[in-house]
Amino acid sequence: TYLYCIYRKQWYQRRVRAEPLPDRKYYRRAWVTFAHNTDIKEACSVLMSSKVEKYDHELNVVINRELSKRVRFVPSFTRSLYAVQEDVKWLEILITELDKAAGLWISRLKDEDDSNEETEDELYENPMIEQLRSFTEDSLKTPILDHELDQGETDEDEIHIINDKKLKILDKLVIYLRIVHMVDYYNGTEFPAEDEMPNKIGVFHIRGPLETSNSKNSLQDVHDWNRQLGAKIQGVIDDMRGVTIPHGEAVEIGLKTEEEAVEEFVKINTEEQGTGKYH
User: Fold this and answer.
1) Confidence class of residue 177 from pLDDT cuts 50, 70 and 90?
2) pTM of the predicted model as reported, rounded to 2 decimal places
3) pLDDT of residue 126
4) Which end of the chain is less crowded, N or C, counting CB atoms within 10 A of the terminal residue's CB?
């Protein structure tokens, strides 16, 4: 791929290589994003006929097709009051942590303490977080069974579907996460180096339209969704904080020392011929 990039530099926009894989004869993958005016057939022809210098290795060329669905739907019951309450909790935690880690929306205030020494305090002020808190106070009160519903809302199985018009601040924060911090909220996924993952660029999950729901959803469906998404989001937060599981728990789920791993590999892949002799 690099031979071709050097041959026709004006044809590509971005290139990246993965690390070689020793267990696959140092097989190495590379990706190139070409300009829209590139003749793909000619590009493939040049690449297929090229060989890696010194090693006489041929290149295996594959064209990644455009993603058929860049915007994908999650279940429509994510409009449920109980799902939205969980979303509000996780969005505030996630955005606050990511913003502070990136130094966004932070003002530094200088102050003097009793000893006349100047100190500097940090003040975090993301206006969207304030809007989210106001939305929580105004719109996320658990309704009683005989409450009046707005047009477009339902009380089916007591999951309390909320009208999309009320969820604009939620949508704004979900988009903010995706664009600014490369986190696809409804999929619970972070893209730490998005330019190195061509197949994932542009993927974005949103609430599916109500019309796509083929069956009646229950409150249990909402709770199951909240539990699964919450576990994914917690994983993103833990990775960001550098949180690891306790050593004892790691051993229970299969953690091995280097010596133990080597000994197990030898036992599986060799046959003992005699004391200290293996084949």
Assistant:
1) very high
2) 0.65
3) 94
4) C
